[in-house]
């Protein structure tokens, strides 16, 4: 369903009324398209504190020359070690933040917290509150994120994503990038070329958008969905030049059947399949609870364990699971759904280091907020409007926003991003 309020606020009467009444004023977002694959303008590099990062090695086109309306600003604050140097964050950004272009990006670079230096830890943790606060006030479709890193080369894919239109609905996030050595793809335009990606629940909605985006990036996509959606899954697969797999992901042997269907192995596994059976706990029968936990969490655990045990995920593989802000912040009437999606976050954080050490596979999650789908279009009007407006961008996201974030985590050069739960919610006012 179209966001008519967003369209109205782009008109002269809409601008007048929203200004006079103090109503949210969402700005149209610059999302990736073949016609406009990059932000329009220069990428300005600023520094706070003494930094040892070699950002020139990232080939991101950063400049220290003054820019009138930069499309992006990168603030290297890895050298901030105390309250005194923290003041340099204000000194660097205060003069330029107003001039950042509409749908522009601000990315703050921070260092891991040093447990042996509580002054450094305090100053670096302060960057988190600063970033999230700036994201809530900056407006005009602009986003603000924090990346903790020690090696700029390992963060090149992450910075490339956050400084591009592909991250239009990702704001207020803190991403940690390890020091793991990564290898860039041979073809940056098709980074997943030669790789096989399986997406569950991919016959429609967000799953279909994920499959489309991974195929755009060169992957051979396997579209998995329940037998009842076999025709839709086949149509999606045919359109993308992939294959379909009709399978109930909750079947006890689902993992073994996936491995058998892909004897040459798998590079990207996207756990997208999910259901809702909303009702307040006092009115929720056991079958509603069990159905949601089985599809959204138990099946993810079972199939992941089976595929790792079978060696079906090749070295350098990626597992991306779908969490939700309902699992991070809670939501009335969704105790079952919230529990299942919080469980995904726990799975990711616990499995990620072991999967990387033992199998060479990273494990991350995306946590969507209000995304414009057929499911949210059926939500009652006032609840739907609240969901759309209660974020820093004052609008709902699109399935493509979740898909682009998934593609970043699936990128061959994202091997240093592991154990992360990244919200795709326009910086929802709910949750951390």
Walk me through what this model shows.
- This protein is an alpha/beta fold and 432 residues long.
- It has three domains: 26 residues, no CATH class; 146 residues, Rossmann fold (3-Layer(aba) Sandwich), CATH 3.40.50.720; 229 residues, Rossmann fold, CATH 3.40.50.
- Helix content is 38%, strand content 17%.
- It has a seven-stranded parallel beta sheet, sandwiched between helices. The protein has a six-stranded parallel beta sheet with strand order 2-1-3-4-5-6, with helices on both faces.
- β8, α7 and β9 form a beta-alpha-beta unit.
- α8 packs across α9.
- The radius of gyration is 21 Å and the shape is globular.
- The two termini are 28 Å apart.
**The named CATH superfamily of the largest domain:** NAD(P)-binding Rossmann-like Domain
Give the class from helix and strand content and strand pairing. Answer: alpha/beta
Distance between the termini: 28 Å
Write down the Rg: 21 Å
Number of domains: 3
**Percent of residues in β-strands:** 15-25%
Outline:
With 432 residues, the protein is of the alpha/beta class.
Task: Give the SSE layout.
Layout lengths: L3 H6 L2 H10 L21 E7 L12 E2 L8 E8 L3 H11 L11 E6 L7 H20 L5 E6 L7 H7 L11 E3 L19 E5 L4 H12 L3 E6 L4 H11 L2 E4 L7 H8 L4 E6 L14 H24 L3 E10 L2 H5 L5 H25 L2 E7 L5 H4 L3 H9 L9 H12 L10 E4 L8
Helix pairs in contact: 6-14, 8-9, 9-11
Keywords: Oxidoreductase
GO molecular function: 3-oxoacyl-[acyl-carrier-protein] reductase (NADPH) activity
Protein name: 3-oxoacyl-ACP reductase
């Amino acid at each position: 369903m179209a966001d008519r309020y967003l369209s109205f606020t782009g008109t002269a009467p809409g601008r007048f009324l929203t200004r006079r009444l103090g109503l949210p004023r969402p700005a149209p977002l610059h999302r990736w398209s073949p016609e406009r694959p990059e932000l329009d303008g220069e990428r300005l590099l600023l520094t706070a504190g003494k930094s040892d990062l070699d950002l020139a090695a990232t080939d991101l086109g950063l400049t220290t020359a003054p820019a009138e309306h930069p499309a992006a600003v990168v603030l290297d604050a890895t050298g901030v070690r105390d309250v005194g140097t923290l003041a340099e964050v204000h000194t660097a950004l205060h003069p330029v933040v107003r001039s950042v272009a509409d749908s522009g990006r601000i990315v703050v670079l921070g260092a891991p917290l040093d447990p042996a230096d509580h002054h450094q830890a305090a100053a670096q943790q302060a960057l988190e509150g600063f970033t999230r606060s700036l994201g809530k006030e900056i407006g005009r479709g602009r986003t603000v994120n924090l990346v903790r890193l020690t090696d700029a080369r390992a963060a090149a894919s992450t910075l490339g994503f956050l400084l591009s239109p592909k991250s239009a609905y990702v704001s207020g996030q803190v991403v940690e990038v390890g020091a793991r050595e990564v290898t860039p793809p041979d073809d940056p335009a098709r980074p997943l070329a030669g790789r096989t990606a399986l997406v569950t629940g991919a016959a429609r909605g967000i799953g279909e958008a994920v499959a489309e985006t991974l195929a755009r990036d060169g992957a051979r996509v396997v579209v998995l969905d329940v037998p009842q959606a076999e025709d839709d899954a086949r149509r999606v697969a045919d359109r993308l030049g992939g294959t379909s797999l009709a399978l109930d992901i909750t079947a006890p042997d689902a993992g073994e059947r996936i491995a058998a269907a892909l004897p040459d192995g798998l590079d990207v596994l996207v756990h997208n399949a999910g259901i809702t059976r909303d009702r307040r706990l006092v009115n929720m029968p056991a079958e509603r609870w069990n159905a949601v936990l089985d599809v959204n969490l138990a099946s993810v655990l079972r199939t992941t364990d089976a595929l790792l045990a079978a060696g079906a995920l090749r070295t350098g593989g990626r597992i991306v699971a779908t969490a939700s802000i309902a699992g991070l912040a809670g939501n009335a009437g969704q105790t079952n759904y919230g529990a299942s999606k919080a469980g995904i976050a726990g799975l990711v954080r616990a499995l990620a280091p072991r999967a990387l050490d033992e199998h060479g596979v990273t494990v991350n999650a995306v946590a969507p907020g209000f995304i414009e789908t057929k499911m949210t279009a059926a939500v009652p009007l006032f609840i739907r409007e609240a969901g759309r407006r209660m974020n820093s961008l004052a609008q709902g996201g699109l399935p493509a926003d979740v898909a682009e974030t998934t593609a970043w985590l699936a990128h061959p050069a994202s091997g240093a991003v592991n154990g992360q739960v990244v919200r795709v919610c326009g910086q929802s006012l709910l949750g951390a």
